[in-house]
Design a protein that fits this description.
- This protein is of the alpha/beta class and 475 residues long.
- It has three domains: 35 residues, no CATH class; 304 residues, TIM Barrel (Alpha-Beta Barrel); 100 residues, Golgi alpha-mannosidase II (Immunoglobulin-like, Sandwich), CATH 2.60.40.
- 27% of the residues lie in helices and 16% in strands.
- The protein contains 13 helices and 14 strands.
- Strands 5-4-3-2-1-7-6 form a seven-stranded parallel β-sheet.
- Strand 6, helix 12 and strand 7 form a beta-alpha-beta unit.
- Helix 8 runs parallel beside helix 9 and helix 8 packs parallel to helix 13.
- It is elongated, with a radius of gyration of 25 Å.
């Protein structure tokens, strides 16, 4: 993964003389897509939060895979979700977009069905992005989807749709607001700050009061205030009073229940969730065709599971709510793969591997190891000379720290032969072509919880004499 500047750092440097240097040679969308705390935040938490965290996170740790949805007025333009700021659109003109933001009926149910088919277990939708437009029937501003173009409570439709498909419900809320008159001056004007923070707390109260049980609150971008100025402790206290079983992330300046690395897979010592896009941006981008392949999505999902985290994968619906066909196709393929191989993902324990293979990845649950073969290891030319690669298909793993008791192909149940010594596990009896078009998973039962560490065999290989050439001594 490339190391990209965070949204927080971007906002701090915006307008500064050095900002152009900071952003040189960086995808501009990536530069502005991050900024609230991702893995770091003040450690302040509430006692009720600490006491109940393990129980509240239990379903989420099992789920592993969720759908993120970025959808708002920016979807009408079709140039990603930061277009209002990145292109400097005057607010009175931007407000006109609400007249044309009229999604077709039933779009939320289409998303929920897509998520279920994809094997995703929860959904998180943008209720208010940085543009400030509220996607529900709020009583605190008329800049909302009930009083403007759609004249519908889009959050209510989303919540109902997710529940109808048996999925957990998450609400995204951006603290930063480019539209509200106090959204920037609150940093230096105490009266404006009180108005804006009260407004923010009020909107959150509505979201967590009006729709029954909510499973996730996903804060974003706490610019321009500190957590103390946001009254973030009071904010979270209100959240848990209204929704005792909810989980919250770490982007309102407090640690929350889980960290949120963005556009990268970065394991933390606590619960974490990598959020990422299917192409280059979060919101709908008409001409962005850099779509991730199903194999790449499966690889990223597996890596998150391997390291003990979750994967929140975004769709950016068009203005009418239609999901781009490339996203639908890729998610459908991933879902079919999970139908056969989900046992290797859902509920996986972290720590299956501390090193990576040339063609494979690893997950585990208890004493079961799952080997994910992305490139099928058959018919290497070296088999003509090296017995190690005979018969024609050999899957080998170096540095497995457990004894294998049995092995089979997860999709088909085909039992496999294997040999194992101190350095190498060799699995044979494999078909010459991969049993799965995307990623083939082998299921191995072991005597203890398995860990793969290729590097440990450096000291375990039997070493042999070599013909060392001794240089002549100088005269």
């Amino acid at each position: 993964m490339s190391d990209r500047p965070s949204r927080r750092n971007f906002l701090k440097t915006a307008g500064a003389a050095t900002s152009a240097l900071v952003l040189t040679h960086v995808n501009p969308a990536a530069a502005q897509e991050k900024g609230a705390a991702q893995t770091e935040a003040t450690p302040v938490t509430l006692k009720v939060q600490e006491d109940t965290r393990d129980q509240r996170l239990r379903w989420w740790r099992q789920a592993k895979f969720g759908m993120f949805i970025h959808w708002g007025l920016y979807s009408v333009i079709g140039q990603q979700e930061w277009v209002m700021e990145s292109e400097g659109i005057p607010i009175p003109q931007y407000e006109l977009l609400a007249q044309y933001f009229k999604p077709k009926p039933g779009v939320a149910r289409e998303w929920a069905r897509l998520a279920r088919r994809a094997g995703q277990k929860y959904m998180v939708m943008t209720t208010k992005h940085h543009e400030g437009f509220c996607m529900w029937n709020t009583k605190l501003t008329n800049y909302n989807s009930m009083q403007q173009g759609p004249q519908r409570d889009l959050v209510g439709e989303f919540v109902e749709a997710a529940r109808a498909e048996g999925l957990k419900v998450g609400l995204y809320y951006s603290l930063m607001d480019w539209h509200h008159p106090d959204g920037a001056i609150c940093a230096t004007d105490p009266a404006a700050r009180k108005r804006f923070v009260d407004y923010t707390h009020g909107l959150l109260r509505e979201l967590l009061t009006n729709y029954g049980k909510i499973d996730i609150l996903w804060y974003d971008v706490d610019w321009p205030l500190t957590w103390q100025q946001w009254r973030a402790e009071d904010m979270n206290r209100m959240v848990f009073n209204l929704q005792p079983e909810i989980i919250v992330n770490n982007r309102n300046g407090l640690a929350g229940d889980f960290s949120t690395p963005e556009h990268k897979i970065e394991a933390a010592q606590r619960a974490w969730e990598s959020c990422d896009t299917m192409n280059l941006g979060w919101g709908f981008q008409l001409h962005d065709t850099e779509w991730k392949s199903p194999k790449r999505i499966i690889n990223d999902l597996t890596t998150c599971a391997q390291q003990g985290g979750n994967y929140l994968l975004n769709i950016g619906p068009q203005l009418d709510g239609t999901v781009p066909e490339a996203s639908v196709k890729a998610l459908g393929d991933v879902g079919k793969w999970l139908d056969a191989n989900g046992r290797a993902i859902y509920g996986a324990d972290g720590g299956a591997s501390i090193s990576f293979g040339n063609f494979d990845n690893f997950t585990r649950r208890g004493k079961t190891l799952y080997i994910h073969a992305y490139f099928w290891p058959s018919h290497t030319l070296a088999a003509e000379w090296l017995n190690f690669f005979k018969p024609p298909t050999v899957l080998a793993v170096g540095g497995l720290k457990s004894k294998v008791l049995s092995a089979k192909v997860l999709r088909t149940g085909q039992k496999l032969e294997f040999t194992q010594d101190a350095t190498t596990l060799r699995i044979t009896g494999l078909p010459e072509t991969a049993p799965d078009d995307l990623v083939t998973v082998l299921e191995l039962e072991c005597d203890i919880p398995p860990v793969v560490d290729h590097h440990t065999i450096r000291t375990q290989w039997k070493r042999y004499d070599v013909n060392t050439i001794v240089p002549p001594r100088p005269l």
